[in-house]
Write a structure and sequence with these properties.
The protein is mainly alpha-helical. Helix content is 48%, strand content 10%. It has a three-stranded antiparallel sheet with strand order 1-2-3. A hairpin with a 2-residue loop joins strand 1 and strand 2. Helix 1 packs across helix 3 and helix 3 packs across helix 4. The two termini are 32 Å apart.
Length: 118
């Protein structure tokens, strides 16, 4: 018997920012863009997020850089940091971070039963 493999679909969130249609996706292309544009390792930044959270800090600039790589034009091209220059940083983070957290959570493997949750 041939095993059946089920692959999850790419998680994408479509939205409008003023008159611009955009979407957000946390995928390999977004991670590659983030690392090249910012010369920072993705996993190192995620570790930094966790450490900052424990210390009660918010790494605003790192979050904006990650959002700039994950928010994309309909063509799939990341918007980049220049896109957000006319917007208030805290408002951008407040509005877009919940979508990013949701996408990030969807990309993590799910525990199948109680023994895997431990």
């Amino acid at each position: 018997m041939i095993p059946t493999i089920h692959l999850p679909r790419k998680s994408v969130k479509h939205f409008k920012l003023e008159d611009k249609e955009l979407f957000m996706s946390l995928d390999a292309r977004a991670i590659e863009h983030f690392q090249k544009a910012n010369k920072k390792g993705f996993l190192k930044v995620l570790t930094g997020f966790k450490m900052a959270e424990k210390a009660g800090e918010v790494p605003i600039y790192d979050i904006l850089q990650l959002l700039a790589s994950c928010v994309k034009y309909p063509t799939g091209q990341p918007v980049g940091m220049k896109f957000f220059k006319d917007y208030d940083d805290l408002v951008v983070i407040d509005l877009l971070m919940p979508m990013l957290v949701e996408l990030y959570g969807d990309n993590l493997p799910k525990a199948k039963d109680e023994t895997e949750k431990k």
